[in-house]
Amino acid sequence: MKCPNCGNEVSAEETFCGQCGMPKLPPAGSTEAVSTPFPRSGTLPPRLNQQEGFYRDATEEITVRPGMAEQGDGYPPPASPTPSSQYPGSGQYTPQHFQYPGSTYPTQYATPVIPPPPQRKQNSNTALIIVSICLAVTLLSVIGFAAFYLLRGHTTTQTAAPPSAVATTAPTPTQAPSPTATPTALPSPTVAADNGFALCGQPCTNNGFLVEYPQNWQLAAADNANGIKFSNQDQFASFKAPGPTSSAAGDLVMSDLQTNFAYREGYQPPTSASTTTIGNETWVTQTVYYQNNNQRMRLDVYATVHQGKAYIIELQAQDAQFMSINAQYFATMLGKFQFVQTP
């Protein structure tokens, strides 16, 4: 139903209007209770007991309940309902009093029935929930930003700190290895051949040396070793390259004599040894004699070790002609001898 005062919709369970607080009026004929306004003063006007009716003025009136006039004068008025509980502010009401017409009973005062205070409609909690969530999110955001800046400041401080100096030992520079020359199979001769001589090419360079020889002499393989032999009748100059060795130069000379000449007729072993320089290397040399076709032959043997390899030179001629052949051929050949790198 609607409130008669403000027109607000009032449910059946509500006693007062939730909008203006107006008590809800009961439906007509549903109760015997009489709703009367409270008088402004505590005394009744003189005309209250007259038969004509109840006192009323411009602002107040008392409504007589139906059937009240038919009740006998000898019966006391019905008891007024007593409120089930006292509510704050109930003392501001002045109890109503009335008297039935023609009754001799003293004036009865009825306590008005005060309904329970209206129950306010509870507002929706949606706004409160939203506000709470916003506050929680804001608080978490503030805490997160504060922690971020604190951690960032701590990290910056640690990063900005100068590193402690640590003494280190300076590395010792290592000497760069000297480059190794690439061996060449056929190096170009550094000098031209002398008049009447020819340079030995690949047959000699393949064995690690370069030498010139008389143009009219014959080339052949060396006896019992790698190398080249240049010969003219009973005269020859043999250049041998036996290869890697661990022997000393003097031992190489003795070994070559024992292998190739000690068995010859009239062989006379060496009595002394000497040294000389050939091709920028020191050579050990010894001289022996033997018989060949009833001719006394002289043989000079030279030996050295160059880069771990053995080299042997044999020079032979008749003992009577040896000094002349040596000056004409052997000395020139030894003077042009040089080592080359083998492939």
Break the fold down into its secondary structure elements and pairings.
Blueprint: E1 96-98, E2 108-110, H1 126-160, E3 197-199, H2 202-205, E4 209-210, E5 212-214, E6 218-221, E7 227-232, E8 235-244, H3 249-260, E9 274-278, E10 281-292, E11 295-306, E12 309-318, H4 322-335, E13 338-339
Antiparallel strand pairs: 1-2, 3-5, 4-13, 6-7, 7-8, 8-12, 9-10, 10-11, 11-12
Structure, explained:
The protein is an alpha+beta fold and 343 residues long. It is 19% helix and 22% strand. The radius of gyration is 75 Å and the shape is rod-shaped. The two termini are 127 Å apart. Mean pLDDT is 74; it is low at 30-36, 41-64, 67-75, 80-100, 102-110 and 183-189. Among the domains are: 32-121, no CATH class; 197-339, Protein Transport Mog1p, Chain A, CATH 3.40.1000.10. The longest helix has 35 residues, at 126-160. A hairpin with a 2-residue loop joins strand 11 and strand 12 (309-318). The chain is built from 4 helices and 13 strands. The strands form 4 sheets. The chain has a 7-stranded antiparallel β-sheet with strand order 6-7-8-12-11-10-9.
Number of helices: 4
Report the sheet-strand fraction.
15-25%
- Mean of all residue-level pLDDT scores: 74
Number of strands: 13
Characterize the largest beta sheet: strand count, sense, and whether it forms a barrel: 7 strands, antiparallel
What top-tier CATH class of the domain at 197-339 fits best? Alpha Beta
Q: How far is it from the N-terminal to the C-terminal residue, by CA?
A: 127 Å
Q: Looking across the biggest beta sheet, what order are the strands in?
A: 6-7-8-12-11-10-9
